[in-house]
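Fig. S4 source data, part A: sequence.
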Amino acid sequence: MTSKYSADFSDKKTLEKYSSAFTLSDMEIFIFPELFYPLVLANIMSPLLWEWRKDPWFADIDKKGFTFKSNRIKQYIIQNYVFNLDLSTWGITSKTREIERFSGIFDMEVLSQSNALFGYEGDKYYFDIDIRKHFGLDKYNSDIIPYWKTETIEAMTAFRHKENFTTGAGECVSLSSLYASAMFVVGRIPLEKIFLIATPLHSQNFVIEKEGLITNNRRIVTKNMWFNGTSLSEKARRALENEKVTIVSHISGFIHTIYNEATIDRSAYDLFSDRLRQFLVTDLTKLIFINFLRFKSKYKSLFQFECECSGKKRYISLEKMFEYEHTSKFNVSAETRAHLIREIEGDEFHLSPLQGKIMLNDIEDLLDRHHGKDLQETEDQFILLCGQIPKQIIHEMFNDIKTFIRTDPNIPDVNKKYLETSVPLITPENSREDIVASILSHAGTSETSLITLYVYREMDKISWLPFLKAAIERNPVCFNDLNGKKLNEVFKILSEMPDESIYDDKRLALPDEVWNFGRGDGIEKALLMADYIIGKDISSVITVEIGNRKVRLNYNGEVYNFSSTKSFKKSINITGNTYTIK
């Protein structure tokens, strides 16, 4: 029976796209960028996210300002989800297999421009540390690459059932999608203001509110934080400073660095581009200069500070002042400097100026006078105050300052062919029921809405074919962990697991989700067993009969029985990688 929420799955590209809606690997999202925002919408549809509104942590949050809301959401995510990029969670694949899978769909030669494990050369930092070793791939041959699968909120939350985890977890794309969803549901921020940014090695969001806000894994970064010179801001800056932005995704659509066609609303993309560039630029003030010295520590040794203690002038190296920052709630910036100085031991100060060091006091006066002026003019005046310090060092420092105060993001070129697309109309004032109804009503005309139903796994409404393809062909962890066991042993292990799906109602988990989180409905367990059988012998013929809360897997003359609470009536035949559903 064909679902009314279906597509032409006789077309290889369409089948791969909708099958990818279940596994959502980084590569799948790169090749099918239209999958990205539906994950946000699927999380918004989830009852789990709407339960957050009832948590006392978010009491009266709708009455608060944007800063309070974003900080509250950040802290909740930090407390309840950890960052996880363990290769053993979702397993590995190979370049050869992925090239074969996407041949005829995507130019795999182009993939090396934007995928780190296919030869991408964007961020020198990652190659300096040896990217394959960084991600734990050095023990495999160069053909092996990870399945970095993006988790739904259900899978993220279910990590608390996995060994060695006490909270939820997720990789960076999962966390950025969760942040975007939470900003909408809990923070009541319109989706029109939330943009997802993907680079080859990272994913983060840009929220257009006030001066702007970047979500970075479990953290948030304001404009002030971007320029504060701390290790957190250094990590947050890395992707936009060094990498090409491959995808910008929005409720209106997407724009991709490779594809000539874009579906994002052109005016929305223009707004995003303008506001992001404003966020990434600041003036050189004395506060920003101190932050720069914190960021580029090699220049600290050039400076000293003159202060007054008991009516007498005293001098201290800036390096020493920054050392005291680490154990103080105060810092070197002018606003709290006096408090920091009072915490410094007296013998750290000198009675005479330190030879060969620039007086910070003079530099800050200069920066006050030159606020808003040309940076080259400031550099020229700076050199006059630097005594014996070589001009080349000052010139190098100002080159680094230019980089620090201005990041030019390498975002997709605006010159694309913009296609009009239909998207669901939802607002923060809508109830969850209204949002689900809107997505369902638009699924016939909006691909975003239709894909959302597949990401959400609304199995009573969608076609099962893409789900089965994903379940059997791209869930290697359960097979690898069970490999070598007899089928009766596998059945016994599955039977002893709790009959409890991580998804509510008529939604289904994939085999690796069942295996990772140690629980599953009978349908899910049967499909895990089918995955195991096909993994051992691709020519295997399996039937799975679902009805009356009973699930029977027939293979090689043997019948394996499971129980289900999902209330489906289906007859599934799996012959290798061919699937028939009635």
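Fig. S4 source data, part B ends here. The mean pLDDT is 92.
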